[in-house]
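Entry 14. Ran structure prediction on the chain below.
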Amino acid sequence: MPVSVVFTADTHVPKRARDLPHSLWAAVDAADVVVHAGDWVDVALLDRLEERSARLVPVHGNNDHGALRVRLPEVARVELEGLRLAVVHETGDRTGREARCAARFPDVDVLVFGHSHIPWDTVAPVEGRATGLRLLNPGSPTDRRRQPHGTFVTAVIADGALHDVTFHPVPR
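Output, C-alpha coordinates:
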Protein backbone atom coordinates (compact mmCIF):
# COMPACT_ATOMS: atom_id res chain seq x y z
CA MET A 1 0.00 0.00 0.00
CA PRO A 2 1.52 3.39 -0.98
CA VAL A 3 2.77 5.63 1.82
CA SER A 4 2.73 9.43 1.47
CA VAL A 5 5.76 11.13 2.98
CA VAL A 6 6.82 14.68 3.79
CA PHE A 7 10.54 15.43 4.13
CA THR A 8 11.74 18.58 5.89
CA ALA A 9 14.82 19.82 7.73
CA ASP A 10 16.43 22.94 9.10
CA THR A 11 13.19 24.49 10.31
CA HIS A 12 14.93 26.63 12.96
CA VAL A 13 11.62 27.60 14.61
CA PRO A 14 11.33 30.10 16.30
CA LYS A 15 14.74 31.59 15.40
CA ARG A 16 14.33 31.83 11.61
CA ALA A 17 10.51 31.84 11.51
CA ARG A 18 7.71 31.99 14.04
CA ASP A 19 6.10 28.87 12.60
CA LEU A 20 6.22 26.46 9.70
CA PRO A 21 4.64 27.67 6.44
CA HIS A 22 0.95 26.84 6.00
CA SER A 23 1.72 24.73 2.93
CA LEU A 24 4.06 22.52 4.97
CA TRP A 25 1.52 22.12 7.79
CA ALA A 26 -1.10 21.10 5.19
CA ALA A 27 1.31 18.52 3.77
CA VAL A 28 2.07 17.22 7.29
CA ASP A 29 -1.63 16.84 8.04
CA ALA A 30 -2.16 14.84 4.82
CA ALA A 31 0.94 12.60 5.07
CA ASP A 32 1.27 9.08 6.41
CA VAL A 33 4.86 9.77 7.52
CA VAL A 34 6.82 12.95 8.26
CA VAL A 35 10.62 12.87 8.21
CA HIS A 36 12.55 15.74 9.84
CA ALA A 37 16.33 15.78 9.29
CA GLY A 38 17.23 18.00 12.23
CA ASP A 39 17.84 21.58 13.33
CA TRP A 40 14.55 22.10 15.07
CA VAL A 41 16.08 24.58 17.58
CA ASP A 42 13.14 24.41 20.01
CA VAL A 43 11.37 21.40 21.51
CA ALA A 44 7.95 23.06 21.06
CA LEU A 45 8.02 22.37 17.32
CA LEU A 46 8.90 18.72 17.97
CA ASP A 47 5.89 18.46 20.29
CA ARG A 48 3.59 20.01 17.68
CA LEU A 49 4.86 17.78 14.87
CA GLU A 50 4.47 14.70 17.06
CA GLU A 51 0.85 15.70 17.72
CA ARG A 52 -0.02 16.41 14.09
CA SER A 53 1.94 13.66 12.33
CA ALA A 54 0.48 10.22 11.78
CA ARG A 55 4.07 8.98 12.15
CA LEU A 56 7.20 11.07 12.72
CA VAL A 57 10.78 9.99 11.92
CA PRO A 58 13.03 12.68 13.47
CA VAL A 59 16.73 13.24 14.19
CA HIS A 60 18.59 16.03 15.95
CA GLY A 61 20.87 18.51 14.21
CA ASN A 62 23.89 20.55 15.21
CA ASN A 63 21.68 23.42 16.47
CA ASP A 64 19.58 21.12 18.66
CA HIS A 65 20.47 20.89 22.32
CA GLY A 66 19.00 19.95 25.69
CA ALA A 67 15.68 18.11 25.46
CA LEU A 68 16.00 17.74 21.68
CA ARG A 69 19.26 15.79 22.07
CA VAL A 70 17.70 13.67 24.80
CA ARG A 71 14.57 12.85 22.79
CA LEU A 72 15.99 12.51 19.27
CA PRO A 73 18.61 10.19 17.79
CA GLU A 74 21.53 11.29 15.63
CA VAL A 75 20.54 8.71 13.01
CA ALA A 76 17.10 7.19 12.40
CA ARG A 77 16.38 4.12 10.29
CA VAL A 78 13.02 2.91 9.11
CA GLU A 79 11.67 0.56 6.46
CA LEU A 80 8.54 1.74 4.66
CA GLU A 81 6.86 -0.45 2.05
CA GLY A 82 10.14 -2.27 1.45
CA LEU A 83 12.21 0.94 1.12
CA ARG A 84 15.11 1.20 3.58
CA LEU A 85 15.41 4.81 4.69
CA ALA A 86 17.98 6.49 6.95
CA VAL A 87 17.89 10.05 8.26
CA VAL A 88 20.85 12.10 9.50
CA HIS A 89 21.45 15.81 9.79
CA GLU A 90 25.02 16.25 8.54
CA THR A 91 26.83 14.43 5.74
CA GLY A 92 29.92 16.62 5.46
CA ASP A 93 31.27 18.50 2.47
CA ARG A 94 29.45 18.17 -0.85
CA THR A 95 32.65 16.94 -2.52
CA GLY A 96 32.60 13.15 -2.31
CA ARG A 97 29.24 13.11 -0.49
CA GLU A 98 27.68 10.29 -2.54
CA ALA A 99 30.60 7.88 -2.15
CA ARG A 100 31.11 8.75 1.53
CA CYS A 101 27.44 8.23 2.37
CA ALA A 102 27.17 5.03 0.31
CA ALA A 103 30.08 3.62 2.33
CA ARG A 104 28.54 4.76 5.64
CA PHE A 105 25.03 3.49 4.81
CA PRO A 106 25.54 0.35 2.68
CA ASP A 107 22.22 -1.19 3.75
CA VAL A 108 20.05 1.86 2.90
CA ASP A 109 18.12 2.77 -0.25
CA VAL A 110 17.49 6.46 0.54
CA LEU A 111 19.43 8.77 2.87
CA VAL A 112 17.62 11.94 3.94
CA PHE A 113 19.84 14.71 5.28
CA GLY A 114 19.83 18.42 6.05
CA HIS A 115 22.31 20.99 7.36
CA SER A 116 23.16 22.83 4.13
CA HIS A 117 19.66 24.23 3.49
CA ILE A 118 20.32 23.38 -0.17
CA PRO A 119 17.82 21.11 -1.94
CA TRP A 120 19.62 17.98 -3.14
CA ASP A 121 18.52 14.85 -5.00
CA THR A 122 21.25 12.61 -6.37
CA VAL A 123 22.10 8.93 -6.63
CA ALA A 124 25.49 7.57 -5.62
CA PRO A 125 27.37 5.58 -8.24
CA VAL A 126 26.65 1.86 -8.03
CA GLU A 127 29.43 -0.18 -6.46
CA GLY A 128 28.38 -3.71 -5.65
CA ARG A 129 24.71 -2.77 -5.27
CA ALA A 130 21.66 -3.31 -7.43
CA THR A 131 21.05 0.45 -7.40
CA GLY A 132 22.94 3.37 -5.95
CA LEU A 133 22.07 5.10 -2.70
CA ARG A 134 19.70 8.02 -3.28
CA LEU A 135 20.56 11.14 -1.27
CA LEU A 136 17.76 13.60 -0.59
CA ASN A 137 17.97 16.97 1.16
CA PRO A 138 14.62 18.78 1.34
CA GLY A 139 16.29 22.17 1.91
CA SER A 140 14.77 24.47 4.52
CA PRO A 141 11.20 25.78 4.52
CA THR A 142 12.10 28.73 6.75
CA ASP A 143 15.73 29.72 6.06
CA ARG A 144 16.49 29.72 2.36
CA ARG A 145 19.99 31.20 2.74
CA ARG A 146 21.29 31.69 -0.81
CA GLN A 147 18.48 29.70 -2.44
CA PRO A 148 15.72 31.47 -4.42
CA HIS A 149 13.12 30.20 -1.94
CA GLY A 150 12.60 27.79 0.92
CA THR A 151 11.62 24.19 0.17
CA PHE A 152 10.23 20.95 1.53
CA VAL A 153 9.60 17.65 -0.27
CA THR A 154 6.66 15.31 -0.70
CA ALA A 155 6.88 11.81 -2.16
CA VAL A 156 5.17 8.45 -2.27
CA ILE A 157 6.78 5.18 -1.26
CA ALA A 158 5.42 2.07 -2.97
CA ASP A 159 6.82 -1.31 -3.96
CA GLY A 160 10.17 -0.60 -2.31
CA ALA A 161 10.80 2.62 -4.25
CA LEU A 162 10.47 6.37 -3.88
CA HIS A 163 8.05 7.93 -6.40
CA ASP A 164 6.67 11.36 -7.24
CA VAL A 165 9.44 13.27 -5.45
CA THR A 166 8.36 16.92 -5.50
CA PHE A 167 10.29 19.89 -4.16
CA HIS A 168 7.73 22.48 -3.01
CA PRO A 169 8.84 26.10 -3.07
CA VAL A 170 7.94 28.19 -0.05
CA PRO A 171 7.53 31.90 -0.76
CA ARG A 172 9.65 34.33 1.25
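The chain has one domain: 3-170. Will compare against last week's run tomorrow.
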